[in-house]
Amino acid sequence: MEKINSISFKGENSKKQKKNLKGSLASYAIGIITTKASLPVSYFAAKKMLKLSGSLNTDEKGILNAAVDNVLNNKTNLAKKGAVIKNTTNSPGGFLKNIILINRDDFPLSTFHEMGHAFNFNNSVFWKTMQKMRRAGTALTSLILFFVAFSKESKPQDGKELTKAQKFKNNLRKYSPALVAAAMLPTVLEEGMATLRGNKWAREVFEKTPKLAKKVSKTNKWGFISYCAMTAGIAFSAHIVRRIKDLSTAKKEGFAQFNSKMEAHQG
Ligand SMILES: [Zn+2]
User: Fold this and answer.
1) pLDDT number for residue 262
2) How many domains, in total, are found in the chain?
3) Does 262 fall in a domain?
4) Has residue 10 been placed in a domain?
């Protein structure tokens, strides 16, 4: 008898899940769009960075280039470790292991921050690991959003308590905004560390031209703000996915209950 009950229960469940596939897809799609909520902040930050670098005159650009060489060759072991600077035109800059990507035309002030990444890669096992965790963090974030969209909250039925697995699943859904933010933490921390190193070198090499050191730290501040906004946007999207999916499930199940009552009444 118990077996029959569990079979019919499973059957009911899969029927409901099938019915709510639309809810899962809709919440996931809206969630993906919401992860882009920070784009206006990133755009604003990029504009500020562009303006700061654009304010450099020819003399200042010359001082900046010499200072970058100084950091690479004298202040740090970066040149010895094989770090090289390559030009990029389609991003504000970046890093890939020992390649420091610099947009010399539009974002030369970001060079110090990117050298900070190269220093993290070459001189610290901890920060190098954090760099490696960036991809894993992004993948984990997508996985959590997907899980929240394609699962539903377990509710105790017929006076029975929730199983450990059900409680775990409910908590995973409930704390998903904090979890995705935590998954982004290695990225944010490593970005922060690259910025702190870059700002420190800038203060040292621009001792006689503190205006330039200030421009470097302002540029780095805007870069960091856009990473924080991105993390907040992703956490917010986890919240939105759960809200939409839960509302859609409640609506579906409300209808299902209403229909079964009507059928019982007619019978
Ligand atoms: Zn960076």
Assistant:
1) 64
2) 1
3) no
4) no
Q: What is the pLDDT at residue 48? A: 95
118 CA to centre of ligand 1 in angstroms? 10
**CB-neighbour burial class of residue 118 (10 A; exposed 0-12, middle 13-18, buried 19+):** buried
Residue 207 is assigned to a structural domain of this protein: yes
Distance from residue 58's CA to the centre of ligand 1 (Å): 26
Query: Which ranges constitute the DSSP H helices of 39-85?
Result: 39-54, 58-70
Predicted model pTM: 0.81
C-alpha 143 to ligand 1 mean position (Å): 24
Q: Sheet containing 84-87: which strands, arranged edge to edge? A: 84-87, 99-102, 93-96
Distance 113 CA to ligand 1 centre (A): 6
Structural domain includes residue 39: yes
Distance 188 CA to ligand 1 centre (A): 9
- Give average pLDDT by consecutive 10-residue segment, the chain, 267 residues: 40 52 86 84 92 94 93 95 90 87 90 96 95 92 93 85 92 96 96 97 95 96 95 94 90 71 59
Q: 46 C-alpha vs ligand 1 centroid, how far in Å?
A: 13
Supply the range of the domain harboring residue 140: 27-152+163-250
